[in-house]
Design brief:
This protein has four helices and five strands; from the N terminus they run βαααββββα. The protein has about 110 residues and is α+β, with helices and mostly antiparallel strands. The chain has a domain of about 60 residues. A hairpin with a 5-residue loop joins β3 and β4.
């Protein structure tokens, strides 16, 4: 599939994602930016297979209207982000404070 050979494009425009990212402590924020820089250099096939990102489908939370599936991926050692694929874009939604929050657990 030709689209999987193209580099992933980042959409960081979600206000919740921006708030989560920009309020991280400096070391975590820098780690998250390093991860985002890494992602933009990968193809979708590489994102799916990358053992460090751990791209996983989330089935435990209801998806917003217009989004088929939400995924989680490791954005820092301690945090996961939620995102979805929209053609060549990865559209980020949140950076969760802990692992369980990513999956809608308390």
């Amino acid at each position: 599939m030709a689209i999987n050979k193209a580099k992933v494009r980042l959409d960081l425009n979600n206000p919740v994602f921006q708030e989560n990212l920009l309020t991280l402590q400096k070391p975590e924020r820098h780690a998250a930016l390093d991860t985002l820089n890494k992602i933009r250099q990968l193809t979708w096939d590489q994102v799916y297979r990358d053992p460090g990102l751990k791209w996983e489908k989330i089935t435990s939370i209801k998806t917003p209207a217009g989004i088929d599936t939400i995924y989680s991926l490791r954005i820092t050692q301690a945090r996961r982000a939620t995102a979805y694929r929209d053609s060549e874009f990865i559209r980020f939604l949140t950076v969760e404070p802990d692992h369980d929050a990513t999956y809608g657990k308390k």
